[in-house]
Amino acid sequence: MKESIKCEEIGLIGELIQGEELAKKLYDQIFSPSSPSSSTSSSSSSSTSTSSHQVLIDKLILSIETAITMAKGNEGKIKTNNVNMMDSHCSNGSPKSEVQDSKFKHKHVSKKRKTVPKWTEQVKVYSGTAAEGSVEDGHSWRKYGQKDILGAKFPRGYYRCTHRHAQGCLATKQVQKSDEDEMICEITYKGRHTCTQSNKALPSKTKLKFGQNKSQLNQKIQPQEEKIQSPLENNFSIDDKEDIFQSFNFSSPSIGSENEDNNIFLETMIENNFMENEDNNIFSDSNIFCLSSLLDLDSTGLGPSESNITEIISGPNSIANSPMDFDLYNDINFDMDDFSINTQELCY
DNA sequence: CAAATTTGACCTGC
DNA sequence: GCAGGTCAAATTTG
């Protein structure tokens, strides 16, 4: 409970900071004669600066409104959390005290897991071993479950990072063979690896045996595989607002060529400060940045060029690969109802 | 024998 | 109530 309140506070503070920054910007634009926006073209400066002032003011108002909304939301949330805790404990009359308790704790935390980044890929395996689905993505995975999915020919396999316990790596993935084409596996990744496993070492292959008879497992596994780009709508799961967070496009070259450390840093930052804060709708659906480089599976920084695997993570609006100006997105964000954080901060 | 997989049961959200 | 996701004991594998 404390944590969620803390998250609310963080979001609120972020919102207020954003408001402050916007106010400063506005101040600069109005009162600073050397402002780049007004000094470049004298003929159009007046209308341009006026419109930019308008934008800034809009942002400022929105920011303040969001902060107010969040502050209001806090009151109810604290109460709600109390009730939830009570309900969860009291309604559970199971005698399995210890196991239940630990499970309960776990499940309670798992609510937050919904907020981890999630993206989907389709992997085509040419070798004819799609049966095993030996999908190599540079990480070792341990299968923890398999489930028949309604309407799907093949069961879905559930995998988590082998280093989950050792290093607390919470990355998971779900692998499911496509109904239409057995050669295609749809892989949904959730969370990013925080383990220190290196790609340089040969990754242990995930052997996916869903819906296959064992004789097929003796087939020679060839690593040849190709990630194919599916239509954007299909390739990118937009199940919840947090998904969109992947689509942040950090135009900064230094970030664009991120290494593992920075990725982890960002993810940690995201998870600690933003992602958990579900109710604030931070980074709402319409925020169309791209984090593709940060979510690159090749987290060692070797890059996709090292392999034949091309990471394809596309935002809903195809902006992922667009070199468009970051500020444009930033402006767009402020048109959104639930925007609550200054994304420019992330850019720096 | 340790690690990985299988699989039925359990939990949660819709 | 159902479907999807996870757990964990049993089993298999190296």
Describe this structure in words.
The structure is a single chain. The chain has 348 residues and is an alpha+beta fold. It folds into three domains: 2-112; 115-235, N-terminal domain of TfIIb (Single Sheet); 241-347, no CATH class. 41% of the residues lie in helices and 11% in strands. The chain contains eleven helices and six strands. The chain has helices at 2-31, 36-39, 45-90, 97-113, 164-167, 232-235, 241-244, 253-256, 260-275, 326-333, 343-347; strands at 118-125, 141-147, 156-161, 172-177, 184-190, 225-228. Strands 2-3-4-5-1-6 form a six-stranded antiparallel beta sheet, with no helix packed on it. A hairpin with an 8-residue loop joins strand 2 (141-147) and strand 3. Helix 1 (2-31) runs antiparallel to helix 3 (45-90). The two termini are 31 Å apart. The relative contact order is 0.14. The chain binds a DNA duplex (14 and 14 nucleotides) through helix 4, strand 2 and strand 3.
The DSSP helix count reads 11
Mean pLDDT: 51
Beta-strand fraction estimate: 5-15%
CATH H level of the largest domain: which superfamily? WRKY domain
Sheet having the most strands: 6 strands, antiparallel
| CATH architecture descriptor name of the largest domain | Single Sheet
